[in-house]
Recover the amino acids of this structure.
């Protein structure tokens, strides 16, 4: 193993506290961001997007003057002004039929709300139990990209900004374990994001790396974050407004595509380095002495210096980005017949499959008949499927044309699938592969492209 | 010159304390606490051990050293036990924070008090006499610390933090009761004055903590692979 000068690359606690927080985060700026209300007002004044504040409750007198008429019919989030780690935040949705707020599936009355506000005012959720303020904030409905990725809670994007340059970014996803909070300590996921392209890289979960979402089994790498440039630009603007030299900015994208700041942190955590498998210290050193003139300038610098995708580091080729539905061409190399169809891009499937109609038009009609006559489209018990597979796979007519068979197990038993050699052409890339023939007549798309054929693409699941 | 300084410091600390009839043990502990603090700061800053604050383990060390491990650990155990019990008991009432704290604290105080009485009754010894009531009050202070940590980090995390803190405090207590160290500071009280300088030296260390080498091991692995490419 070659020697790596680790401390020069990775940012540790000591160095973060001493060389960054002490050196470039002045008290006035820390005070500015420690109050969410104050910072949000400042952002709004500077035309930077942030979820709207409906009402602020500063003291017990305010409790009797809550503008219920205005709040009714609205969905909102109640937050402590100086909360941390997602504590004390409750999300309430207005239920039109019952005319009451719901917290998850439970009704939440005015009395419940008042009680929670009292707890916040008493300082139960603030650092050191100091008395605090509470506020009602507009409830942000996450962009559909995020809704697909996690079942509950509001995912956000953490961007570390230093000297107006975004150094590193991470997508934070809530899990069932984290109870809707996206904090890593609570059991949330951190997905590293390549700063130049907005494409996700590695995922950290409880200190180790994983490939799939623990709740949804969705593959988390190679996804393109929507509105990436706007995200970076907003993060830089927030850092500049905060006055912090080094900050972690939390950003959300809502269902209509607004990019908004949730908050900025003066002491952002260090685990973001693991999610990106890269060190912050090295990046700090590289931009420390730059004169960055504007947000755009900062973005260009980050793209030049820290993007992994057009540098020489890991993956040097630019992969095309696929949407959920793509037009693909499937070619039968034996007779050069081809067909262009809309296929579903599905990383949840191991291999690709085509429907009966598509198979017929490619000249596999005879095989469809064989499959039918052997009853292979039907579910059967796994041992029976294995026996049938053994019986037919050696037949000359199949072997001659490269048709293979395999048993696919599912919850309700097994089927024998026939695989034929084809060429799939997506975005000018040709993939020589085998696809299974499946009865897809009851499904919306006549073909799906599975994970094994998607190695040379990035996937945008929206 | 140095000799004169030594004599001067000796005369205004140890000798003066003896003249005031301050017990030897108290002098030793006063002079050694800075070293315990330095030791803890070292463990946290260089090694990366986590403890609940810095004052809590120091105070715990002193309690252990003064009242003995059995009594100290038993006291912590009962304070923690009744804190958890009090929290469980208070839950159905759905109380606000401040009244709830008063509720929990009274449960802890009365619980520990009755336990001590009960123990002295069956063992026919008087543990309350052997300890200063002060150590209990100090522990009560840190109940809030413990509650805060369990609030911020979750119960599992805070229990392991508590265990680590107690372990570190035991080391601190061993240092406090180490005879050679006690003799050294007793005869050379100026040693304690050197601690601030060591602290400044400690502050100069900006590098990774030992524990961070493990925490960031995956990044290191990746860097090594990149280099070999």
């Amino acid at each position: 193993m070659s020697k790596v000068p680790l401390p020069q690359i990775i940012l540790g606690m000591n160095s973060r506290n001493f060389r960054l927080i002490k050196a470039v985060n002045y008290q006035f700026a820390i005070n500015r961001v420690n109050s969410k209300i104050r910072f949000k007002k400042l952002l709004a004044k500077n035309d930077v997007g942030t979820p709207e504040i409906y009402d602020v409750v500063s003291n017990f007198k305010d409790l009797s003057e809550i503008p219920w008429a205005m709040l009714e019919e609205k969905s909102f989030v109640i937050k402590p002004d100086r909360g941390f780690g997602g504590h004390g935040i409750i999300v309430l949705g207005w239920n039109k039929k019952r005319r009451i707020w719901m917290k998850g599936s439970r009704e939440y009355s005015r009395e419940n709300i008042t009680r929670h506000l009292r707890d916040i005012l008493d300082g139960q959720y603030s650092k050191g139990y100091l008395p605090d303020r509470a506020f009602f904030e507009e409830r942000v409905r996450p962009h559909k990209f995020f809704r697909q990725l996690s079942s509950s809670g509001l995912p956000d994007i953490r961007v570390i900004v230093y000297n107006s340059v975004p150094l590193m970014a991470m997508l934070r996803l809530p899990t069932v374990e984290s109870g809707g909070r996206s904090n890593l300590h609570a059991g949330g996921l951190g997905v590293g994001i390549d700063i130049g392209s907005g494409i996700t890289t590695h995922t950290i979960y409880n200190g180790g790396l994983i490939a799939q979402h623990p709740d949804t089994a969705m593959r988390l790498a190679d996804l393109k974050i929507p509105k990436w440039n706007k995200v970076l630009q907003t993060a830089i603007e927030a850092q500049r407004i905060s006055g912090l030299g080094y900050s972690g900015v939390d950003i959300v994208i809502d269902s209509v595509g607004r990019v908004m700041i949730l908050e900025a942190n003066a002491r952002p955590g260090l685990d973001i380095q693991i999610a990106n498998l890269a060190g912050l210290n090295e990046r700090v050193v590289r931009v420390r002495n730059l004169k960055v003139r504007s947000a755009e300038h900062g973005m260009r610098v980050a793209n030049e210096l820290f993007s992994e995708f057009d540098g020489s580091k890991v993956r040097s080729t630019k992969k095309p980005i696929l949407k959920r539905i793509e037009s693909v061409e499937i070619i039968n190399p034996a007779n050069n017949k081809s067909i262009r169809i809309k296929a579903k891009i599905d990383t949840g499937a191991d291999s690709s499959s085509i429907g009966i109609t598509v198979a017929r038009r490619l000249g596999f009609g005879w095989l469809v008949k064989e499959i039918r006559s052997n009853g292979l489209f039907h579910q059967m018990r796994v041992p029976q499927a294995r026996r049938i597979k053994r019986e037919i796979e050696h037949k000359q007519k199949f072997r001659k044309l490269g048709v293979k068979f395999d048993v696919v197990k599912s919850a309700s038993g097994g089927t024998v699938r026939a695989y034929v050699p084809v060429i799939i052409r997506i975005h000018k890339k040709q993939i020589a592969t085998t696809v299974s023939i499946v009865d897809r007549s009851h499904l919306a798309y006549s073909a799906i492209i599975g994970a094994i054929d998607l190695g040379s693409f990035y996937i945008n699941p929206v | 010159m140095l000799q004169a300084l030594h004599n001067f410091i000796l005369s205004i600390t140890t000798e003066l304390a003896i003249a005031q009839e301050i017990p030897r043990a108290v002098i030793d502990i006063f002079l050694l606490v800075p070293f315990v603090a330095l030791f803890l700061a070292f463990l946290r800053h260089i090694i990366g051990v986590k403890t609940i604050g810095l004052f809590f383990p120091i105070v715990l060390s002193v309690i252990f050293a003064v009242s003995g491990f059995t009594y100290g650990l038993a006291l912590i155990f009962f304070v923690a036990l009744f804190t958890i019990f009090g929290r469980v008991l208070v839950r159905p009432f759905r109380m606000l924070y401040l009244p709830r704290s008063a509720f929990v604290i009274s449960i802890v105080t009365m619980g520990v008090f009755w336990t001590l009485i009960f123990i002295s009754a069956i063992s026919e010894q008087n543990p309350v006499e052997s300890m200063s009531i002060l150590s209990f009050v100090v522990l009560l202070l840190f109940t809030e610390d413990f509650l805060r940590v369990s609030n911020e980090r979750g119960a599992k995390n805070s229990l392991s933090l508590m265990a680590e803190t107690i372990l570190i405090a035991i080391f601190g207590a061993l240092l406090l009761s180490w005879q050679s160290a006690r003799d050294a500071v007793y005869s050379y009280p100026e040693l304690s004055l050197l601690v601030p300088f060591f602290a400044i030296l400690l502050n100069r260390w900006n590098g990774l903590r030992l524990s961070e080498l493990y925490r960031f091991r995956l990044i290191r692995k990746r860097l090594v692979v990149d280099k070999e490419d």
In short: DSSP finds 15 helices and 22 strands in chain A. Chain A touches chain B through 37 residues (CB under 8 Å).
